[in-house]
Amino acid sequence: MKGIVFTEFLDLVEDKFGIEMVDKIIEQSELDSGGVYTAIGTYKFSEMLQLLENLSNNTGVSTDDLLLVYAEHFFSVLEDSYPGLLATYKDPIEMLSSIEDHIHVEVKKIYPDAELPTFLVEEKSENSLVLLYKSSRAMHHFGLGLMNKTFEHFNSSAEIVLEKIKNDGTEVRFIINKN
């Protein structure tokens, strides 16, 4: 997993819960990296799971809810860092339907060894989209948070239903209906 995911997560934890919480969850985790991350480094996904789990245990906030909040923070980072990418799109449905064929292609140019989930378009119309999410990592709530922020970015809203296909969350269907 790319380091930017870790550095931004720890920034969010510091902003929301304080530097003491950052230290606490790092100390409670068994991290090969020692909790030292660079944005361009690559780290084990298991480290993110430990940090999330320990943050959840210390705050009482579910990991799914933490991932939603983190996705909202991360979208802001993308907005600030890559405004040209978002400006390519005029509509949230258009943007979300191009995750696989455009956005992930651009991400791979910046981070060639990034392990990204797959988003397959099952159905698409002007106001609705059905996406199939597949990943070895169950971070579908992170994806859901990014989708929510995508609609907000376009001053729009949607009902997004998350349907688990596999109980472990590695395969999920997002049913999106624009309001």
UniProtKB/TrEMBL annotation:
GO molecular function, one term: heme binding
Location of the Heme NO-binding domain: 2-160
Record PANTHER family: GUANYLATE CYCLASE SOLUBLE SUBUNIT BETA-2, SOLUBLE GUANYLATE CYCLASE GCY-32-RELATED
UniProt name for this protein: Heme NO-binding domain-containing protein
Record organism: Tenacibaculum singaporense
Classification lineage: Bacteria, Pseudomonadati, Bacteroidota, Flavobacteriia, Flavobacteriales
